[in-house]
Amino acid sequence: MLRVIQLLSLVGCLAQADAVPDTTLTVERYLSNESPIALQGVLNNIGSNGAKALEASPGIVIASPSTVDPNCDLTSGAGLGEPKFYTNETAFLEYWGRPQRDGPALRAMALMSFGNDRLALGQNTTVKDIIWPVVRNDLAYVAQYWNLSTFDLWEEVNGSSFWTTAVQHRALVEGAKFATAVGDSCQDCDSQAPNILCMLQNYWNGNSINSNIQVQSETYDRSGLDCNSILTSIHTFDPDPDVGCDAMTFQPCSDRALANHKAVIDSFRDTYVINSNRSSGQAVAIGRYAEDIYEGGNPWYICTFAAAEQLYDALWTYNSSKSITITDISQPFFDDLIPGISLGTYTSSSKQYENIIQAIQSYADGFVSIAEQYTPSDGSLAEQFSRNNGTAMSAVDLTWSYASFLTMQRARQGKHGPSWGAAHANKLPTQCSGGGAVGNYLTPSATAFPKNEEGTFGSASASAAQATPTGTASGTAASPTKSKSAGNRIRPFPWS
């Protein structure tokens, strides 16, 4: 489902990179050359006209063309907490990590982004009759089940996931706004979002983000430092200047997010052979988590791109606010880049501000340079690259890898979507509650767009509009049932 929201966020905004001053020629050349390859890589994986997804149903985005080692002939996210379906839209009934409760939140976020584009085109009736019913069910699911255990985005750990909690919070906040835009309301969005924000604070341990807590496994033994925390920061980034470097929502430039960025990156410095001889303050290849053993436990393109994207988002906020504040929490991050730097606020009129901006830009570009070094000559992006020699490996032509490149590039260019409302949703309630709402689900009756509105995507390019699905592939929107693996309602707060 993460790939879907990345894909839809790109519609209308995809373009090759513009030149950015003060960056290395190597990075600029890579961005320029890889951009059309990455876009085509995404389009190739959309059924049924995509070159590598010809057997998939129309509109289905496949994870990868790989059918063996690993088999990726599946599409993620649907109905409602199910992890995946076959690409012919039939149910996947085999054992898997279910439920994955990030799916409804991510699908709602993607469809609301798409719906807002339609509203801007004046297609209010279409949005209310076709898109809103699907979004409404997903929001109802989030409001009801946010405090039940879930498998994380890597589909491995059952418990409470930082990633899932954060996107659930964003979905409900954004959902309340979207409901108003279509002439409806979402009272459960308003009542449950503050409680989810309370839950979100429990992942912060004072130094970094513990990505998985209350894990339902006696064999779980990880540090909690995980690339999914960096992915979370960029997927809940709000470009509204009033949000700034808000720590409660872990904005990319917040002291918490930057301290966590350092902690996660440092956990990989001695993990891979290809990271040898790289000191603090220098970019390295990033994987999912240091203890990973899947397919040999290698660096992932998505994680390496995400490490850069968080810093580009931070730079955008700094340049918007014209100031940088260094706290005792974020000081170790900045000290790696400018040794001996002092705590305090640096304004854009100061020389130190310029030094910090340049240091972060160079550091971010370093992660892109790492990815460039280990991208095959044909520009294809697999899932992973070898920890020993950088050879591309695991699932080939991974949609997520291509989408991650494109969103990273957009962030570097300073291109961002609209605010999701974080400025009005970053205050904790007087009293936190661990309960959920009682969900109300209705099966959508309208499932096809009017013929005269098919293929219209605002400012999207013609090629993207023709290749992008015009209907939803969300699977059933019937009332969800509680999975046997869901576990009991868990304690979100120390005092509950």
Give the structure's gist in a few sentences:
The protein has one domain: Glycosyltransferase (Alpha/alpha barrel).
Pick out its properties.
single chain; 496 residues; mainly alpha; Glycosyltransferase; 3-stranded antiparallel beta sheet; two-stranded antiparallel ribbon; 13 helices; disordered C terminus
Give a verbal description of the structure.
With about 500 residues, the chain is mostly helical. The protein has a single domain, classed as Glycosyltransferase (Alpha/alpha barrel). About 40% of the residues lie in helices and about 5% in strands. It is globular, with a radius of gyration of 21 Å. About 50% of the residues are buried. Residues about 10-25 and about 455-495 have low confidence and may be disordered.
